[in-house]
């Protein structure tokens, strides 16, 4: 992937409004199916709670 292609993909990802759009962009770039390109956040398989806060109210999720 060239620098220009990388830049175009990053800009498209930032502009995407839905999960489906993101998935399509990753599929078009041949990234979606290649498991060797994906890593767990922090290289920790159990980091789901770090990303998805259990708080129901946004203010409590960000201001602890």
What does this structure look like?
The longest helix has 13 residues, at 3-15. 50% of the residues lie in helices and 0% in strands. The protein has helices spanning 3-15, 19-28, 48-51, 58-62. The chain is mainly α and 64 residues long. It has one domain (3-62).
How much β-strand is present in the residues? Answer: under 5%
Rg, Å, rounded: 15 Å
The residue ranges in which pLDDT falls below 50 over 5 or more consecutive positions are: none
Helix content: 40-55%
Largest sheet: none
Mean pLDDT: 84
Assign the structural class, choosing from mainly alpha, mainly beta, alpha/beta, alpha+beta, or little secondary structure.
mainly alpha
Domain module tally: 1
Gross morphology is globular
Helices, strands, pairings?
Elements (H helix, E strand, L loop, with lengths): L2 H13 L3 H10 L19 H4 L6 H5 L2
Characteristic key phrases:
4 helices; mainly alpha; single chain; 50% helix; 64 residues
In short:
It contains four helices and no strands. By secondary structure, the chain is an all-alpha fold. The radius of gyration is 15 Å and the shape is globular.
């Amino acid at each position: 992937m060239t620098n220009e292609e990388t830049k175009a993909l990053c800009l498209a990802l930032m502009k995407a409004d839905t999960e489906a759009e993101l998935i399509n962009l990753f599929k078009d770039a041949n990234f979606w199916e290649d498991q060797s390109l994906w890593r767990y956040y922090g290289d920790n398989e159990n980091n789901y709670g770090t990303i998805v806060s259990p708080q129901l109210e946004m203010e409590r999720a960000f201001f602890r």
